[in-house]
Amino acid sequence: MTETVRTSRFPAEIRSRGTWFALGVVVVLLLGWLTHYLNESVPDWAQDTSFDDIASAVEYPVYAILLGLAGNAVLTLTGLRDRLADGFRTEFFIKTGLVLLGASIDLKLIVDAAGRSIVQAVLLISLVFGFTWWLGGRLGLDDKLRALLASAVAICGVSAAIAAAGAVQARKEQLAYAASLVIAFALPSIFLLPWLADVLNLDDAVAGAWIGGNIDTTAAVTAAGTLAGEGPLAIASIVKVTQNALIGVVAVGLAAYFAYRVDRTPDAPRPGPGELWRRFPKFVIGFIAASVIATVYLGQVSSGEGKEHIAVVNDLRIWFLILAFVSIGLEFRVGALREAGWRPVAVFAAATVVNVLLALLLAVLLFSGFEIPAAR
Amino acid sequence: MSGTDPAAEPAGRPDPDVETRRRWALNEDWLATAVGLILIVLVLAGVVTDGLVP
Protein backbone atom coordinates (compact mmCIF):
# COMPACT_ATOMS: atom_id res chain seq x y z
CA MET A 1 0.00 0.00 0.00
CA THR A 2 2.81 2.32 1.01
CA GLU A 3 4.60 1.56 -2.24
CA THR A 4 1.45 2.31 -4.20
CA VAL A 5 1.13 5.68 -2.51
CA ARG A 6 4.82 6.42 -3.07
CA THR A 7 4.81 5.61 -6.77
CA SER A 8 1.67 7.59 -7.42
CA ARG A 9 2.85 10.61 -5.40
CA PHE A 10 6.26 11.08 -7.04
CA PRO A 11 5.04 11.78 -10.57
CA ALA A 12 2.53 14.28 -9.14
CA GLU A 13 5.33 16.02 -7.24
CA ILE A 14 7.52 16.13 -10.34
CA ARG A 15 4.60 17.41 -12.43
CA SER A 16 3.95 20.10 -9.85
CA ARG A 17 7.61 21.18 -9.77
CA GLY A 18 7.64 21.19 -13.56
CA THR A 19 4.58 23.41 -13.64
CA TRP A 20 6.10 25.91 -11.17
CA PHE A 21 9.38 25.85 -13.11
CA ALA A 22 7.50 26.63 -16.35
CA LEU A 23 5.55 29.41 -14.63
CA GLY A 24 8.83 30.85 -13.29
CA VAL A 25 10.26 30.89 -16.83
CA VAL A 26 7.06 32.58 -18.05
CA VAL A 27 7.51 35.32 -15.41
CA VAL A 28 11.11 35.87 -16.60
CA LEU A 29 9.98 35.98 -20.24
CA LEU A 30 7.17 38.45 -19.49
CA LEU A 31 9.48 40.78 -17.57
CA GLY A 32 12.07 40.36 -20.34
CA TRP A 33 9.51 41.36 -22.94
CA LEU A 34 8.52 44.38 -20.80
CA THR A 35 12.21 45.35 -20.54
CA HIS A 36 12.55 45.20 -24.32
CA TYR A 37 9.38 47.23 -24.75
CA LEU A 38 10.51 49.93 -22.31
CA ASN A 39 13.99 50.03 -23.82
CA GLU A 40 12.47 50.68 -27.25
CA SER A 41 9.62 52.97 -26.17
CA VAL A 42 10.85 55.18 -23.31
CA PRO A 43 13.22 57.29 -25.49
CA ASP A 44 10.29 57.94 -27.88
CA TRP A 45 7.94 58.85 -25.02
CA ALA A 46 10.55 61.21 -23.50
CA GLN A 47 11.36 62.95 -26.78
CA ASP A 48 11.18 66.77 -26.50
CA THR A 49 10.74 66.59 -22.71
CA SER A 50 13.20 67.37 -19.90
CA PHE A 51 13.74 63.59 -19.48
CA ASP A 52 15.00 63.19 -23.04
CA ASP A 53 18.71 62.90 -22.11
CA ILE A 54 18.11 60.53 -19.20
CA ALA A 55 15.75 58.31 -21.22
CA SER A 56 18.32 57.99 -24.01
CA ALA A 57 21.13 57.18 -21.56
CA VAL A 58 19.26 54.45 -19.64
CA GLU A 59 19.96 51.06 -21.21
CA TYR A 60 18.28 47.68 -21.01
CA PRO A 61 20.27 46.28 -18.04
CA VAL A 62 18.79 49.04 -15.86
CA TYR A 63 15.18 48.29 -16.88
CA ALA A 64 15.79 44.54 -16.59
CA ILE A 65 17.29 44.65 -13.09
CA LEU A 66 14.71 47.15 -11.78
CA LEU A 67 11.82 45.12 -13.22
CA GLY A 68 13.36 41.95 -11.75
CA LEU A 69 13.56 43.57 -8.31
CA ALA A 70 9.98 44.89 -8.63
CA GLY A 71 8.80 41.41 -9.69
CA ASN A 72 10.74 39.94 -6.76
CA ALA A 73 8.90 42.27 -4.33
CA VAL A 74 5.48 41.42 -5.78
CA LEU A 75 6.13 37.66 -5.82
CA THR A 76 7.52 37.77 -2.27
CA LEU A 77 4.45 39.64 -1.02
CA THR A 78 2.11 37.18 -2.72
CA GLY A 79 4.09 34.19 -1.40
CA LEU A 80 4.82 32.83 -4.90
CA ARG A 81 8.50 33.69 -5.17
CA ASP A 82 10.02 30.51 -3.70
CA ARG A 83 7.73 28.26 -5.73
CA LEU A 84 8.69 30.00 -8.98
CA ALA A 85 12.41 30.36 -8.13
CA ASP A 86 13.50 27.27 -10.14
CA GLY A 87 12.56 29.15 -13.31
CA PHE A 88 14.87 32.11 -12.56
CA ARG A 89 17.86 30.65 -14.40
CA THR A 90 20.37 33.52 -14.26
CA GLU A 91 23.34 31.21 -14.83
CA PHE A 92 21.86 29.52 -17.89
CA PHE A 93 20.74 32.78 -19.50
CA ILE A 94 24.04 34.57 -18.87
CA LYS A 95 26.14 31.63 -20.09
CA THR A 96 24.10 31.35 -23.30
CA GLY A 97 24.40 35.13 -23.69
CA LEU A 98 28.17 34.89 -23.28
CA VAL A 99 28.44 32.11 -25.87
CA LEU A 100 26.50 34.38 -28.27
CA LEU A 101 28.74 37.31 -27.28
CA GLY A 102 31.72 35.21 -28.38
CA ALA A 103 30.51 35.55 -31.98
CA SER A 104 30.99 39.32 -31.87
CA ILE A 105 34.53 39.15 -30.46
CA ASP A 106 37.39 38.74 -32.92
CA LEU A 107 39.45 35.65 -32.09
CA LYS A 108 42.57 37.81 -32.34
CA LEU A 109 41.30 39.96 -29.44
CA ILE A 110 40.82 36.86 -27.27
CA VAL A 111 44.32 35.64 -28.15
CA ASP A 112 45.90 39.10 -27.61
CA ALA A 113 44.16 39.61 -24.27
CA ALA A 114 44.58 36.03 -23.03
CA GLY A 115 48.06 36.45 -21.50
CA ARG A 116 47.16 39.60 -19.58
CA SER A 117 43.80 38.13 -18.52
CA ILE A 118 45.46 34.99 -17.16
CA VAL A 119 48.08 37.00 -15.22
CA GLN A 120 45.34 39.27 -13.83
CA ALA A 121 43.06 36.35 -12.94
CA VAL A 122 45.79 34.32 -11.19
CA LEU A 123 47.04 37.30 -9.15
CA LEU A 124 43.55 38.57 -8.25
CA ILE A 125 42.20 35.14 -7.33
CA SER A 126 45.26 34.32 -5.17
CA LEU A 127 45.36 37.66 -3.36
CA VAL A 128 41.61 38.19 -2.87
CA PHE A 129 40.97 34.54 -1.93
CA GLY A 130 43.88 34.66 0.55
CA PHE A 131 42.69 37.92 2.10
CA THR A 132 39.06 36.74 2.43
CA TRP A 133 40.12 33.38 3.90
CA TRP A 134 42.41 35.12 6.39
CA LEU A 135 39.83 37.75 7.45
CA GLY A 136 37.08 35.12 7.70
CA GLY A 137 39.36 33.17 10.03
CA ARG A 138 40.11 36.25 12.12
CA LEU A 139 36.38 36.92 12.53
CA GLY A 140 35.69 33.29 13.43
CA LEU A 141 33.62 32.20 10.42
CA ASP A 142 32.98 28.51 9.79
CA ASP A 143 35.63 27.10 7.40
CA LYS A 144 33.05 26.05 4.80
CA LEU A 145 31.43 29.47 4.74
CA ARG A 146 34.92 31.03 4.49
CA ALA A 147 35.64 28.83 1.47
CA LEU A 148 32.35 29.80 -0.20
CA LEU A 149 32.74 33.53 0.44
CA ALA A 150 36.40 33.53 -0.62
CA SER A 151 35.61 31.64 -3.85
CA ALA A 152 32.60 33.85 -4.62
CA VAL A 153 34.40 37.15 -4.13
CA ALA A 154 37.70 36.06 -5.69
CA ILE A 155 36.52 34.12 -8.75
CA CYS A 156 33.07 34.50 -10.18
CA GLY A 157 30.25 34.84 -7.72
CA VAL A 158 27.45 32.31 -7.74
CA SER A 159 29.13 29.80 -10.10
CA ALA A 160 32.24 29.71 -7.93
CA ALA A 161 30.16 29.45 -4.76
CA ILE A 162 28.30 26.45 -6.25
CA ALA A 163 31.59 24.79 -7.28
CA ALA A 164 33.15 25.48 -3.88
CA ALA A 165 30.02 24.27 -2.05
CA GLY A 166 30.30 20.93 -3.87
CA ALA A 167 34.02 20.73 -3.12
CA VAL A 168 33.77 21.43 0.62
CA GLN A 169 30.37 19.76 1.11
CA ALA A 170 28.69 22.91 2.34
CA ARG A 171 25.04 23.15 3.32
CA LYS A 172 22.38 24.76 1.17
CA GLU A 173 21.87 27.59 3.72
CA GLN A 174 25.55 28.49 3.35
CA LEU A 175 25.26 28.42 -0.44
CA ALA A 176 22.05 30.53 -0.41
CA TYR A 177 23.75 32.96 1.94
CA ALA A 178 26.90 33.30 -0.22
CA ALA A 179 24.76 33.72 -3.37
CA SER A 180 22.68 36.45 -1.67
CA LEU A 181 25.82 38.33 -0.65
CA VAL A 182 27.16 38.11 -4.20
CA ILE A 183 24.00 39.62 -5.65
CA ALA A 184 23.66 42.26 -2.89
CA PHE A 185 27.18 43.52 -3.62
CA ALA A 186 26.98 43.08 -7.39
CA LEU A 187 23.81 45.13 -7.88
CA PRO A 188 25.30 48.52 -6.89
CA SER A 189 28.59 47.64 -8.63
CA ILE A 190 26.74 47.33 -11.95
CA PHE A 191 25.97 51.05 -11.84
CA LEU A 192 28.90 52.36 -9.78
CA LEU A 193 31.81 50.88 -11.69
CA PRO A 194 30.95 52.17 -15.20
CA TRP A 195 30.31 55.58 -13.61
CA LEU A 196 33.62 55.49 -11.69
CA ALA A 197 35.48 54.33 -14.80
CA ASP A 198 34.09 57.39 -16.55
CA VAL A 199 34.96 59.71 -13.62
CA LEU A 200 38.51 58.29 -13.48
CA ASN A 201 38.72 58.67 -17.27
CA LEU A 202 39.90 55.08 -17.74
CA ASP A 203 40.40 53.95 -21.30
CA ASP A 204 38.10 51.21 -22.62
CA ALA A 205 40.50 48.30 -22.07
CA VAL A 206 41.38 49.32 -18.50
CA ALA A 207 37.71 49.96 -17.65
CA GLY A 208 36.75 46.55 -19.06
CA ALA A 209 39.57 44.75 -17.21
CA TRP A 210 38.60 46.52 -13.98
CA ILE A 211 34.91 45.60 -14.33
CA GLY A 212 35.72 42.02 -15.35
CA GLY A 213 38.26 41.50 -12.60
CA ASN A 214 36.30 43.11 -9.84
CA ILE A 215 32.57 42.41 -10.05
CA ASP A 216 31.86 38.94 -8.73
CA THR A 217 29.05 37.46 -10.71
CA THR A 218 29.33 37.01 -14.48
CA ALA A 219 25.85 38.40 -15.17
CA ALA A 220 26.68 41.60 -13.29
CA VAL A 221 30.00 41.94 -15.14
CA THR A 222 28.13 41.72 -18.42
CA ALA A 223 25.53 44.27 -17.25
CA ALA A 224 28.22 46.73 -16.13
CA GLY A 225 30.26 46.11 -19.30
CA THR A 226 27.15 46.76 -21.42
CA LEU A 227 26.61 50.10 -19.63
CA ALA A 228 30.29 51.00 -20.15
CA GLY A 229 30.23 50.25 -23.92
CA GLU A 230 31.07 47.55 -26.50
CA GLY A 231 34.88 47.82 -26.02
CA PRO A 232 34.82 47.52 -22.22
CA LEU A 233 32.20 44.73 -22.54
CA ALA A 234 34.52 42.69 -24.78
CA ILE A 235 37.51 42.99 -22.42
CA ALA A 236 35.38 42.52 -19.28
CA SER A 237 33.94 39.31 -20.75
CA ILE A 238 37.35 37.91 -21.69
CA VAL A 239 38.72 38.68 -18.20
CA LYS A 240 35.66 37.17 -16.51
CA VAL A 241 35.65 34.06 -18.70
CA THR A 242 39.33 33.57 -17.82
CA GLN A 243 38.45 33.74 -14.11
CA ASN A 244 35.59 31.29 -14.72
CA ALA A 245 38.04 28.88 -16.34
CA LEU A 246 40.03 28.78 -13.10
CA ILE A 247 37.04 27.65 -10.99
CA GLY A 248 38.10 24.03 -11.43
CA VAL A 249 41.61 24.62 -10.07
CA VAL A 250 40.30 26.32 -6.92
CA ALA A 251 37.50 23.76 -6.43
CA VAL A 252 39.92 20.83 -6.66
CA GLY A 253 42.33 22.55 -4.26
CA LEU A 254 39.50 23.18 -1.79
CA ALA A 255 38.24 19.58 -2.09
CA ALA A 256 41.71 18.25 -1.26
CA TYR A 257 42.28 20.73 1.58
CA PHE A 258 38.93 19.97 3.24
CA ALA A 259 39.29 16.21 2.81
CA TYR A 260 42.78 16.02 4.33
CA ARG A 261 43.01 18.99 6.71
CA VAL A 262 39.57 20.23 7.79
CA ASP A 263 37.34 17.14 7.81
CA ARG A 264 40.39 14.81 8.19
CA THR A 265 39.09 11.86 6.21
CA PRO A 266 42.31 10.12 5.14
CA ASP A 267 40.40 7.56 3.09
CA ALA A 268 38.86 10.32 0.97
CA PRO A 269 39.57 9.78 -2.73
CA ARG A 270 42.37 12.04 -3.96
CA PRO A 271 41.03 14.47 -6.59
CA GLY A 272 42.76 13.63 -9.88
CA PRO A 273 43.21 15.53 -13.15
CA GLY A 274 39.75 14.30 -14.21
CA GLU A 275 38.26 16.47 -11.48
CA LEU A 276 39.73 19.56 -13.14
CA TRP A 277 37.88 18.75 -16.35
CA ARG A 278 34.68 17.80 -14.49
CA ARG A 279 34.60 21.18 -12.72
CA PHE A 280 35.72 23.24 -15.74
CA PRO A 281 32.88 25.58 -16.81
CA LYS A 282 32.08 24.21 -20.24
CA PHE A 283 30.49 27.40 -21.55
CA VAL A 284 34.04 28.85 -21.75
CA ILE A 285 34.57 26.39 -24.63
CA GLY A 286 31.34 27.65 -26.20
CA PHE A 287 32.51 31.27 -25.90
CA ILE A 288 35.81 30.53 -27.68
CA ALA A 289 34.13 28.21 -30.23
CA ALA A 290 31.63 30.99 -31.09
CA SER A 291 34.49 33.41 -31.72
CA VAL A 292 36.29 30.84 -33.91
CA ILE A 293 33.12 30.03 -35.90
CA ALA A 294 32.27 33.72 -36.47
CA THR A 295 35.88 34.68 -37.31
CA VAL A 296 36.15 31.87 -39.90
CA TYR A 297 32.67 32.67 -41.27
CA LEU A 298 33.42 36.40 -41.65
CA GLY A 299 36.52 35.50 -43.64
CA GLN A 300 34.35 33.60 -46.16
CA VAL A 301 31.48 36.03 -46.84
CA SER A 302 31.11 39.65 -47.92
CA SER A 303 31.36 42.33 -45.25
CA GLY A 304 27.67 43.33 -45.67
CA GLU A 305 26.32 39.78 -45.35
CA GLY A 306 28.61 39.05 -42.40
CA LYS A 307 27.56 42.20 -40.52
CA GLU A 308 23.88 41.46 -41.15
CA HIS A 309 24.17 37.95 -39.66
CA ILE A 310 26.29 39.01 -36.68
CA ALA A 311 23.70 41.73 -35.96
CA VAL A 312 21.04 39.00 -35.63
CA VAL A 313 23.33 37.05 -33.25
CA ASN A 314 23.80 40.28 -31.25
CA ASP A 315 20.01 40.75 -31.03
CA LEU A 316 19.66 37.20 -29.68
CA ARG A 317 22.50 37.88 -27.24
CA ILE A 318 20.67 40.98 -25.94
CA TRP A 319 17.54 38.85 -25.36
CA PHE A 320 19.46 36.30 -23.29
CA LEU A 321 21.22 39.06 -21.32
CA ILE A 322 17.87 40.74 -20.62
CA LEU A 323 16.53 37.43 -19.25
CA ALA A 324 19.69 37.03 -17.13
CA PHE A 325 19.44 40.55 -15.67
CA VAL A 326 15.72 40.11 -14.93
CA SER A 327 16.61 36.84 -13.15
CA ILE A 328 19.31 38.60 -11.07
CA GLY A 329 16.64 40.94 -9.71
CA LEU A 330 14.23 38.07 -9.12
CA GLU A 331 16.83 35.91 -7.33
CA PHE A 332 17.89 38.52 -4.77
CA ARG A 333 17.04 37.40 -1.20
CA VAL A 334 17.18 39.76 1.74
CA GLY A 335 16.13 37.07 4.27
CA ALA A 336 19.32 35.01 4.05
CA LEU A 337 21.42 38.12 4.71
CA ARG A 338 19.42 39.05 7.80
CA GLU A 339 19.88 35.57 9.29
CA ALA A 340 23.65 35.41 9.32
CA GLY A 341 24.57 38.61 11.14
CA TRP A 342 27.28 41.15 10.52
CA ARG A 343 30.51 39.11 10.43
CA PRO A 344 30.17 37.45 7.00
CA VAL A 345 28.87 40.76 5.60
CA ALA A 346 31.92 42.55 7.04
CA VAL A 347 34.25 39.92 5.52
CA PHE A 348 32.55 40.17 2.12
CA ALA A 349 32.52 44.00 2.20
CA ALA A 350 36.22 44.21 3.14
CA ALA A 351 37.10 41.64 0.47
CA THR A 352 35.13 43.61 -2.10
CA VAL A 353 37.06 46.81 -1.28
CA VAL A 354 40.38 44.95 -1.57
CA ASN A 355 39.16 43.40 -4.85
CA VAL A 356 38.16 46.83 -6.26
CA LEU A 357 41.56 48.36 -5.49
CA LEU A 358 43.68 45.39 -6.58
CA ALA A 359 41.65 44.93 -9.78
CA LEU A 360 42.10 48.62 -10.62
CA LEU A 361 45.84 48.45 -10.00
CA LEU A 362 46.24 45.29 -12.11
CA ALA A 363 43.96 46.62 -14.88
CA VAL A 364 46.06 49.80 -15.15
CA LEU A 365 49.34 47.84 -15.05
CA LEU A 366 48.28 45.16 -17.54
CA PHE A 367 45.80 46.83 -19.90
CA SER A 368 46.95 50.47 -20.29
CA GLY A 369 47.40 51.20 -24.00
CA PHE A 370 45.79 47.88 -25.05
CA GLU A 371 44.07 48.34 -28.43
CA ILE A 372 40.52 46.99 -28.86
CA PRO A 373 39.48 46.48 -32.49
CA ALA A 374 36.12 47.97 -33.56
CA ALA A 375 33.11 45.80 -32.65
CA ARG A 376 31.67 43.71 -35.47
CA MET B 1 24.23 35.62 15.15
CA SER B 2 21.00 33.73 15.38
CA GLY B 3 20.40 30.04 15.79
CA THR B 4 20.19 29.62 12.06
CA ASP B 5 23.53 31.29 11.54
CA PRO B 6 25.23 29.41 8.70
CA ALA B 7 28.60 30.31 10.15
CA ALA B 8 27.92 28.64 13.46
CA GLU B 9 26.61 25.19 12.55
CA PRO B 10 28.82 22.11 12.61
CA ALA B 11 30.13 20.40 9.50
CA GLY B 12 27.87 17.65 8.20
CA ARG B 13 27.36 15.25 5.34
CA PRO B 14 27.15 16.68 1.82
CA ASP B 15 23.85 18.47 1.44
CA PRO B 16 21.82 16.74 -1.30
CA ASP B 17 20.38 20.12 -2.37
CA VAL B 18 23.88 21.51 -2.89
CA GLU B 19 24.92 18.40 -4.83
CA THR B 20 21.82 18.76 -7.02
CA ARG B 21 22.56 22.43 -7.68
CA ARG B 22 26.18 21.64 -8.51
CA ARG B 23 25.22 18.87 -10.94
CA TRP B 24 22.56 21.07 -12.48
CA ALA B 25 25.13 23.89 -12.85
CA LEU B 26 27.46 21.53 -14.76
CA ASN B 27 24.62 20.38 -17.02
CA GLU B 28 23.54 24.01 -17.45
CA ASP B 29 27.05 24.80 -18.74
CA TRP B 30 26.70 22.22 -21.51
CA LEU B 31 23.13 23.29 -22.24
CA ALA B 32 24.13 26.96 -22.54
CA THR B 33 27.04 26.00 -24.82
CA ALA B 34 24.81 23.87 -27.04
CA VAL B 35 21.96 26.42 -27.24
CA GLY B 36 24.35 29.31 -27.95
CA LEU B 37 26.32 27.49 -30.65
CA ILE B 38 23.20 26.07 -32.32
CA LEU B 39 21.67 29.55 -32.48
CA ILE B 40 24.87 30.97 -34.01
CA VAL B 41 25.02 28.24 -36.63
CA LEU B 42 21.30 28.72 -37.45
CA VAL B 43 21.79 32.48 -37.87
CA LEU B 44 24.95 32.14 -39.99
CA ALA B 45 23.19 29.50 -42.13
CA GLY B 46 20.34 31.96 -42.73
CA VAL B 47 17.70 29.85 -40.94
CA VAL B 48 17.13 32.38 -38.14
CA THR B 49 16.78 35.80 -39.72
CA ASP B 50 16.26 39.36 -38.51
CA GLY B 51 12.48 39.02 -38.89
CA LEU B 52 12.35 36.09 -36.45
CA VAL B 53 13.99 38.02 -33.58
CA PRO B 54 11.61 40.51 -31.94
Automatic annotation (TrEMBL), chain A:
<feature type="transmembrane region" description="Helical">
    <location>
        <begin position="60"/>
        <end position="80"/>
    </location>
</feature>
<keyword id="KW-1003">Cell membrane</keyword>
<keyword id="KW-1133">Transmembrane helix</keyword>
<feature type="transmembrane region" description="Helical">
    <location>
        <begin position="117"/>
        <end position="135"/>
    </location>
</feature>
<protein>
    <submittedName>
        <fullName>Sulfate exporter family transporter</fullName>
    </submittedName>
</protein>
<comment type="similarity">
    <text>Belongs to the UPF0324 family.</text>
</comment>
<feature type="transmembrane region" description="Helical">
    <location>
        <begin position="20"/>
        <end position="38"/>
    </location>
</feature>
<keyword id="KW-0472">Membrane</keyword>
<dbReference type="InterPro" id="IPR018383">
    <property type="entry name" value="UPF0324_pro"/>
</dbReference>
<feature type="transmembrane region" description="Helical">
    <location>
        <begin position="318"/>
        <end position="334"/>
    </location>
</feature>
<keyword id="KW-0812">Transmembrane</keyword>
<feature type="transmembrane region" description="Helical">
    <location>
        <begin position="241"/>
        <end position="260"/>
    </location>
</feature>
<feature type="transmembrane region" description="Helical">
    <location>
        <begin position="175"/>
        <end position="197"/>
    </location>
</feature>
<feature type="transmembrane region" description="Helical">
    <location>
        <begin position="280"/>
        <end position="298"/>
    </location>
</feature>
<dbReference type="Pfam" id="PF03601">
    <property type="entry name" value="Cons_hypoth698"/>
</dbReference>
<feature type="transmembrane region" description="Helical">
    <location>
        <begin position="346"/>
        <end position="370"/>
    </location>
</feature>
<feature type="transmembrane region" description="Helical">
    <location>
        <begin position="147"/>
        <end position="169"/>
    </location>
</feature>
<feature type="transmembrane region" description="Helical">
    <location>
        <begin position="209"/>
        <end position="229"/>
    </location>
</feature>
UniProtKB/TrEMBL annotation, chain B:
<keyword id="KW-0812">Transmembrane</keyword>
<protein>
    <submittedName>
        <fullName>Uncharacterized protein</fullName>
    </submittedName>
</protein>
<keyword id="KW-1133">Transmembrane helix</keyword>
<feature type="region of interest" description="Disordered">
    <location>
        <begin position="1"/>
        <end position="20"/>
    </location>
</feature>
<feature type="transmembrane region" description="Helical">
    <location>
        <begin position="30"/>
        <end position="53"/>
    </location>
</feature>
<keyword id="KW-0472">Membrane</keyword>
